[in-house]
Amino acid sequence: MIEVSELTVRFGGVTSLDGMSVRFEAGTCGLIGPNGAGKTTFFNVLSGFVRPAEGHVRAFDEDLLSMAHFRRARWGLRRTFQTEQAIESLSVYDNVALVHEHSKLGRANRRGEVLDAIEFVGLRDVAYVKVGTLGVGSRRLVEVARAVVGKPRLVLLDEPAAGLPDAETAHLGELIRRIPEHSEALTILVDHDMSLVSSCCPVTAVLDFGKMIASGPTADVLRNEQVVRAYLGAEEFQ
Ligand SMILES: Nc1ncnc2c1ncn2[C@@H]1O[C@H](COP(=O)(O)OP(=O)(O)O)[C@@H](O)[C@H]1O
Ligand SMILES: [Mg+2]
Known about the structure:
Layout (H helix, E strand, L loop, with lengths): L1 E10 L2 E11 L3 E5 L6 H9 L6 E6 L2 E2 L5 H7 L1 E3 L12 H11 L7 H11 L15 H13 L5 E5 L7 H18 L2 E5 L3 H7 L2 E6 L2 E7 H6 L1 H7 L7
Parallel strand pairs: 3-8, 3-9, 6-7, 7-8
Antiparallel strand pairs: 1-2, 1-4, 4-5, 9-10
Helix pairs in contact: 3-4, 3-5, 4-5, 5-6, 6-7
Bound molecules: adenosine-5'-diphosphate (ADP) and magnesium ion (MG).
């Protein structure tokens, strides 16, 4: 369980997170909100790129914010970014192995765990192909493989479906739904595709201007008046 209390992040005069408090239980949880709401900033706090001005995060009963950021990968934190991180000139295998290596997981099982992640996303046939030669859908799956390698405890997915055609989004959704059973990781999904969030996440939390405005069963949250109002005029709300 991830317990976030009174998290506040300021960049100069901008308050990106404003006393954010929420709990994420096991399984896959949605985190939605209009552009600029603070979703990526929240992921940056969890992964240690951004230090909050105030607040606490307990992750599986540990104080995550007191953990050095370079220890968090080994502890079991993985994330994807809004821009692809895989190196085009390297193979799928090498790209996933880099995360395993960076996470300082034991060498002994490296090959097996890397191939397991690649198998999980269905890229076994192209494991030794350079990422630069793959199509956009497969490249996105490489990002997911990098996020699930080595039995993580916490997986953060930042708009993994952005710009993907519907069929590839549906395939990605099937994978995301299987992450908790594959790695037992608590997964937080940020995306603007509400049908993806609904199909993957039994519960969803909503950020608006850095504040949590709703959280609970996804269907209820999406009907919540304050949530609908936060999205009014935001064309990505479908
Ligand atoms: N490194 C930064 N420096 C200054 N402002 C930032 C920085 N990161 C985020 N922000 C600001 O914080 C707010 C939240 O941004 P972000 O977390 O990226 O939102 P979201 O991911 O929900 O679209 C925005 O106003 C953004 O401009
Ligand atoms: Mg973002």
